[in-house]
Structure formats: structure tokens, C-alpha cells
Amino acid sequence: MSNLEADPRAILCGGEDGGEDGEILEGRAVPLGGPRAMTVTRTLPHVRRRMIGAWCFVDAYGPEQAEMRVAPHPHTGLQTVSWLVTGEVLHRDSLGSLQAIRPGSLNLMTAGRGISHSEESRAGVLHGVQLWVALPGEHRRVAPDFEHHATLPVLTGPGFAATVFLGALGGVRSPATAYSPIAGAEIAIDGDAELPLDPAYEHGLLLLDGDVAPLRPGPLRYVPPGRDRVRVRGNGRVLLVGGEPFAEEIVMWWNFVGRDHDEIAGFRKEWMEGEGFGVVHGYDGAPLPAPALPATRLKARGRVR
After folding, report:
1. Where do the Pirin C-terminal domain residues begin and end (predicted)?
2. pTM over 0.85
3. Which DSSP symbol is given to 287?
4. Residue 238 within a domain
């Protein structure tokens, strides 16, 4: 999914201290597309905390009657993780991939040195998340790639069943390619549950549906490293993201992840000149133009403000 903001410099959102249950990262509403845009809730990057592990972008949308239509656009230096709760989205990319994603399956696109893609949904109820993972320095220019995983491993325990779509959780590992120590899972909660955590990781929990305490709809709850479990209770579904704290400073602007202003400016120039990102065939419409760069130079930032 693209960041469609006309001015991608601004990150304006609030936050609050969550006490012993963790810091609360309130999201902000972002329109996805034109006048009939679907609104997404963006909790990462946050004004106070830009990343959780290598996760650098968390958009949640729905459930709502909506039709997604995102024209071809570029990415560099990241992986996109598409995960649905309800609905269906069709992915096309410049590698020639054509793949629908449905609930319970994973679309994982590795941008590496550069790729472009489009996304379209059928009319109906749409509910899901779009996530980005920053690639560490030694892997950020890998060859672009696309993976679809129709079936994924499940970790079960008292009161929960976790579908692990990226990295590992509680000893259960996803078959999807990961480039840093990471965890990503959708967890079905039924009653009281203690979810296993890697104490070397920081984590984020987002309520997808239902009623699961101590979570509430909307914000992402941050859990710092050092915890080996977190207790939840209720009935519903929760998104868990986590990973080792990301040590590198990055520049994230529009749909690019780089390391300095000049690199981002180079990516933008290549995209606008039709170089370096290939062509998405089969989409009925023109590619997205890149926004203008800000007047001031972009600066690399760490994971927290």
C-alpha cells in the first residue's frame, strides 16, 4: 500500500503513558486515495516512537464497505506486509506478480533496491492492516521479490491461537523471508491468555476486532523489551508486531526508506523519470506521481524521538 499523503513530511499525532501495561500510541486518520477515499488509522510512524523493531509503518483500515484502488507506486528499502481480516485485495507488481490476498494468507513484497506495485479490492467489506518492515543496511538493496503464503503456522496456548505470518513467536516460525529478528502474528483470543514474548524484542499490540482487555480500538500499545509474556483477556483478534530494537537511523519519506536526503531525492528522480522501478502491467490507470520534496533537507532519524 502507498502512503498517499500530499505532504508526507508531517507526522502529527498524540500519545499517552500507558503505565505498567505499556505506552499508548494513538493513531491519526489518513485518507487513502481521492475524494471517495477510505480512511486508515496510522499508528506508526508516531511522533514519539517511529519504529517497533524493524516495523516502521502500521496502517489499520475497516471494517467498512469500501473499494481500495491504489495506482502503481514505488518502494525502496523495505518489505510490505499485507494482512486481511475481511475482504480481498489484488496485488500487481513490476516483477509480473498477480496475486489476490484473502484472510489467513500473506502477501509479502520485498522492495530492496526498487519495485513498483498496485492494489485493488473488490467492492464489499474491507478490513485489514498494511505494514512496512525496514530492511537493515546489509540487505536494503537486495533484489526485489514477492512471496504469497496461503497457509501459515499456528501457535496455540490456553486462551489463544496465534497465526505467525512473519518471523517467530513462541518457537513457531513463519516460512516468509525475514531480514532481521522479528515477530508478526494475528492472535485470536478466547478467555484469559498469556501471550509469549521474546524479552529481547520490543512489541506492539493492536486490537483488530472484539473486546480484549487491556486494549481498546484504535491505538497501538507499546511493550518495551524485557517482558517475556503479556496477559490479555476477552474475545477477539489482536495484531502483534515485535522485533529487536532497530539500531540504524533511517529516512522514511513517501514510499521510500533510505539513509539520507540525497538517496531519497535520487529515488524520487528515478521514479519520475520512469527508471529503476519497472512497470506494473494490467492496472487501468496512470502511476502515482511523487510529491514534491520538502524545502529543507530530510534527516535520518532513530527509532524514538
Report:
1. 217-274
2. yes
3. P
4. yes
